[in-house]
Amino acid sequence: MAPLERSLPLFPEAAAVPPPGSTVTAGLPDSFRVAPRYSRGRNEAGSPGAAARFTTRRSRPAPLWLAIHLPSLPLEVFPDAAGEGPLAVVEQEGSRQLVVAVNECAVRHGVGAGQPLTAAQALAPALEILERNGHAEQEALERLAVWAGRFTSAVSLEPPAGLLLEARGSLRLFGGLRAFREEVGRGLAALGHRAQQGIAPTPLAALWLARAGDPDAVGEAHLLAGRVGRLPLACLGWPAKTLADLSAMGLRRVRDCLRLPRDGFARRFGPHLLAELDRALGRSPDPRIPFRAPPRFAAGLELAGEIREAPRLLDAAARLLDALGGFLETRQGGVQSLELEFAHADRAASSLRLGLSAPSRDPAHLRELLAGRLERLALPAPVLGVRLCSGAVQSLPPSDRLLHAPRQPGLRLPRLVERLRARLGEEAVHGLCLLPDHRPETAWRRTGLGGNGGNRDIPDFRFTKIRNVPISPKIRNVPISRPLWMLAEPQRLPRRQGQPCYRGALTVESGPERIETGWWDGRDVARDYYVATNPRGMRLWIFRQRRGRRPWFLHGIFG
After folding, report:
1. How many other C-beta atoms can be found within 10 angstroms of the C-beta atom of residue 279?
2. In this structure, are residues 254 and 229 in contact, taking their beta carbons and an 8 Å threshold?
3. Cα–Cα distance between 337 and 347 in angstroms, integer?
4. Residue 502 has pLDDT above 90, yes or no
5. What is the dihedral of CA 373, 374, 376, 378, to 10 degrees?
6. Which of 164, 211, 340, 533 registers the highest number of CB atoms within 10 A of its CB?
7. Peptide bond before 512: cis, by omega within 30 degrees of 0?
8. Is residue 495 within a helix (H) or strand (E), and if so which, with residue range?
9. Cis preceding linkage at 359, omega within 30
């Protein structure tokens, strides 16, 4: 086979993409070819400069991470731990106990995180001690991750006390980085957390800035080496032995480690620490696993001490309701039922169910309803922990942070019903449905609110034309209205000198209205109904049996 005289180019000029504005006329003479309208970007030799323009893609904006560091999380998982006296959370490390978090009173006594417990007790003899609860801290971190879903869809956990939020895609919604950070800060403060924020193009650098308490944001990747280099090594979260070895070598800040030979640093301290530095500076990728919210909300809080009065549980429950609000806003849904469980020391857990007339995701509304229920609740035993579980999540229209829509009038009645149920109880507020029956006790039944529990074609029995059965010349044949207050069971009335009495002798105003029906179901009645008044001015609906000894009964009260 004869060798080729020349090799074929990878991008031959004859097969190049036609210039913009020209028409493809393959196989036509040159006189019929359309000249390009412009030739910007083409070099003199006609090299594929035009093709390069077609392959150019718009670069995506670099990510921007907001890190949240919670230095007091071991103390904040106890919602009632902010007492007046000094308080510290301790953790066992080897053969000694170390302080990991303190309240403000303990700080005023000179107690700080990292101190041995014996030294802290010497500074504050009245120091109250709580054992660190790692499980509660993990649950609190997951609750915050659910809540943070209202700001961005990319949320990652960074145990034991950190969260990472990718903020670039949410800045326009919140009006810029400053407004975004302020909104996150206000939400964390409302949830009862003290937080430090860090902003950087890489998640690890943002987390280190948050741990160091550096509030200034780093917007560009080429600035990372200078800003991260100033940070102390203590904010990196490396093992204590590694930090001690670095300190013995005279290394105090991150820039000191960056000046060391890479091979020697990797041999001495391990390649994983060198890889962390590369990820923090953006030299290597640092993918993060996003947090996925569960299908239903369930979270709990352990109390620092026993609570014996139910209203005092509202503060702990309010924190769970705020987290529930973030969870529902992320899911763009609402719940119609909640269950609050109370953990006791020497008996099984008790519970409180909260039902709503319509799905809701407003924490303030849920807190108002729960406050009414807790005021009437009698606890069977002191409470040591609270857990909130939601019902099925139902879809709701998303709320708009920027456009304030007018309130919907249709929500006023369900909210009123929910408040009444919270104050009076679930069984005290219900709907009524008319039934096609002349017997007053079977002419209605209870129904749930918000639906039609009966037949719309039922006739109106509020006014009935009565049969003329006079018992006195003064009683006339007039329509009789039904009272709104009906007794569950008719009450037999005593008689004095043949007249019925109820807190005095009764005077008949109108009647009778004869009801004689029900023979087909074995509950037949034969009654004559009257409207009567007593000496106190009460208007009553009474009847007299038409069989046997013909006793008198009270069946309703008008007012």
Report:
1. 17
2. yes
3. 25
4. yes
5. 130
6. 164
7. yes
8. strand 495-496
9. no
pLDDT digits (tens, 9 = 90+) for 265-317: 999 999 999 999 999 999 999 999 999 888 888 888 888 788 888 888 888 88
d(CA 265, CA 253): 15
What is the rounded distance in angstroms from the CA atom of residue 142 to the CA atom of residue 309?
Answer: 29
Distance CA 200, CA 228 (A): 10
Per-residue pLDDT tens digits for 56-72: 455 667 889 999 999 99
Nearest-10 Cα torsion for 547, 552, 555, 559: 150
DSSP states along 274-342: HHHHHHHTTSS----PPP---SS-EEEEEEEEEE-SGGGGHHHHHHHHHHHHHHHHHHTEEEEEEEEEE
Crossing angle of helices 412-424/363-375, nearest 10°?
30
Taking alpha carbons only, the member of 300, 65, 104 closest to residue 184 is 65
* Residues 206, 180: Cα–Cα separation, whole Å: 15
State the pTM of this model.
0.59
Of 236, 252, 255, the C-alpha closest to 244 is 252
Helix H, strand E, coil C: the string for 409-458 is: HHHHHHHHHHHHHHHHCHHHCCEEEECCCCCHHHCEEEECCCCCCCCCCC
DSSP state of 221: G
Q: Give the Cα separation of 524 and 236 in Å (integer).
A: 85
92: tokens are 């066992």
Residue 515 C-alpha from the chain's centroid: 55
Average pLDDT over residues 455-476: 39
Q: What is the mean pLDDT of the chain?
A: 79
CB 41 within 8 A of CB 52: yes
Nearest residue to 214 via CA among 201, 227, 203, 233: 227
Tokens linked to 482: 């039904």
Eight-state DSSP code of residue 261: -
Quick one: pLDDT at residue 452?
A: 40
